[in-house]
UniProtKB/TrEMBL annotation:
It is found in: Membrane. Its main location: membrane. GO terms for molecular function: polysaccharide binding. Pfam families: GUB_WAK_bind. This is Wall-associated receptor kinase galacturonan-binding domain-containing protein. Residues 1-25 form the signal peptide. It comes from the Eukaryota. Residues 32-96 form the Wall-associated receptor kinase galacturonan-binding domain. GO terms for cellular component: membrane. Keywords: Signal.
Amino acid sequence: MAHAQLLVFLVPMAFFLKLATPVDGAMAMPGCPDKCGDVAIPYPFGIGENCSAINLNSYFNLMCNGTFHPPRPQIREPEAHIEVTGISLERGEMRVLSPVNHICFTSNTTSTKSSGVGYDLSKTPFLPSPSRNRFTVIGCNTLGLITGYRGASGQYVTGCYSYCEGINSTSDGAPCAGMGCCEASIPANLTAFAVTFDLNHSKVWTFNPCFYSVVSEVGWYNFKKQDLVGHLGFIKDRAQNGVPIVADWAIRNGSCPEKGEKEPSSYACVSANSYCTAVINSPGYLCNCSEGYGGNPYLSDGCQGSAITQIYLNFVTY
Ligand SMILES: *[C@@H]1O[C@H](CO)[C@@H](O)[C@H](O)[C@H]1NC(C)=O
Ligand SMILES: *[C@@H]1O[C@H](CO)[C@@H](O)[C@H](O)[C@H]1NC(C)=O
Ligand SMILES: *[C@@H]1O[C@H](CO)[C@@H](O)[C@H](O)[C@H]1NC(C)=O
Ligand SMILES: *[C@@H]1O[C@H](CO)[C@@H](O)[C@H](O)[C@H]1NC(C)=O
Ligand SMILES: *[C@@H]1O[C@H](CO)[C@@H](O)[C@H](O)[C@H]1NC(C)=O
Ligand SMILES: *[C@@H]1O[C@H](CO)[C@@H](O)[C@H](O)[C@H]1NC(C)=O
Ligand SMILES: *[C@@H]1O[C@H](CO)[C@@H](O)[C@H](O)[C@H]1NC(C)=O
Ligand SMILES: *[C@@H]1O[C@H](CO)[C@@H](O)[C@H](O)[C@H]1NC(C)=O
C-alpha cells in the first residue's frame, strides 16, 4: 500500500470524555457562557465568535451541540463532529474524543475498507501531545502504521507489529509489547497524521476478525483478550464514543516578546500579573498567571490574588 495515498483519508480532528471541572465565572469572557453542558470553556476558547479569540485562531470558537443532553462542546468542522471533553489553561491541553481506525475480515480473502482516521491540524492551534499519547495497534498478525507530516521536517512514518497465534496466546493486562497489541510513541510537531494498516493477514480472521489502531491518551488502553474477538467488538465494548486524545494547544502565530521588546499587536497575555511561556511541541506560546495569582491570564484582570488559585481546571489523568 502506498503511504502517500493514506493522507487522502485525512479528515479533521475527533471526539470526548467526562472530566470533573470546577467552574468559575472569571474563566470565560464577561457576558459569555463559561461552560457547555458539563465542560468548562475558558477563554481564549469560547462558544461563538464574540466569545472566543477568533482573531488568534478561528478554532478557539467551539460549538455547543444541544442535540445531546447535557449539551457537548465540539470543534467546528464541517465534516467531523469532534467532541471536546476538557480544556486546561494551566497545561495548555485539550482532551478530545477520536474515532477508532479499524479493518475487518469477513473471509480469508475479503475485508472491509479501512476506516482511515486522520487529521490535518496545520490551520488549528492543536497538535497531539507526544508525551501524553501513544499510537496503539490491536490485533493478531497486523502491522499498524501512522503516517504524517512534521511541519518543516517533512513526511513521517512509524508503526508497530502485533502477533498472536490464537486468543489464548495473549493475556489480559499484558503490556502492549507485540502480543495482541503493540504501541509506538509519537513525535512533536505532528501537524497531520493518519493511521492505517499495511498487511494482508487474512489467516487470523476466524478468531480475530478486526484490527484496530488508535492514537490515544497514555494509560487509557489496557489489553483485554476480548478486544480481539467479534466484529467491531472492541469499539462496541470500550470505544463507542471514541478514544481520548490529549492535544497541546497554544497561541501559534507569535512568540513571547524578548525582554524590552514591544509586545506583538495581538499579544494574548493581557492580564496584569501574567507572563508568557514558550511551548516545546511546536511554534507558539502560552500565558500563565504570576506566582501567587490564579485565574485566566488571557482576560484583562483575569489573574487574581491567591484566594482563587484553585479554580484551575482539574485535568484528570489516567
Ligand atoms: C457579534 O458582535 C457583533 C458586534 O457587536 C454583532 O454585530 C454580531 O451580531 C455578534 N455576533 C453574534 C454571533 O452574536
Ligand atoms: C494570527 O493569525 C490571525 C488569523 O490568521 C491574524 O488575524 C492575526 O493578526 C495573527 N496574529 C499575529 C500576531 O500574527
Ligand atoms: C451535533 O452532533 C451530532 C453528532 O455528532 C451531529 O450529527 C450534529 O450535526 C451536530 N449538530 C450540529 C449543529 O452540528
Ligand atoms: C503555570 O504555572 C504553574 C505553576 O508554576 C505550572 O505548573 C504550569 O505548568 C504553568 N503553565 C504554563 C502554561 O506555563
Ligand atoms: C481461503 O480459504 C479457501 C478455502 O478454505 C482456501 O482454498 C484458500 O487457499 C484460502 N486462501 C488464502 C489466501 O488463504
Ligand atoms: C489478501 O490476499 C489475498 C490472497 O493473497 C488476496 O486475494 C486479497 O485481495 C488480499 N486482500 C487485501 C485486502 O489486500
Ligand atoms: C482458551 O482458553 C479458554 C480457558 O482456558 C478455553 O475455554 C478456550 O477453549 C480456549 N480457546 C482456544 C481457542 O483455545
Ligand atoms: C517543532 O517546530 C518548531 C518550529 O516549527 C521548531 O523550533 C522545533 O525545534 C520543532 N521541535 C521538534 C521536536 O522537532
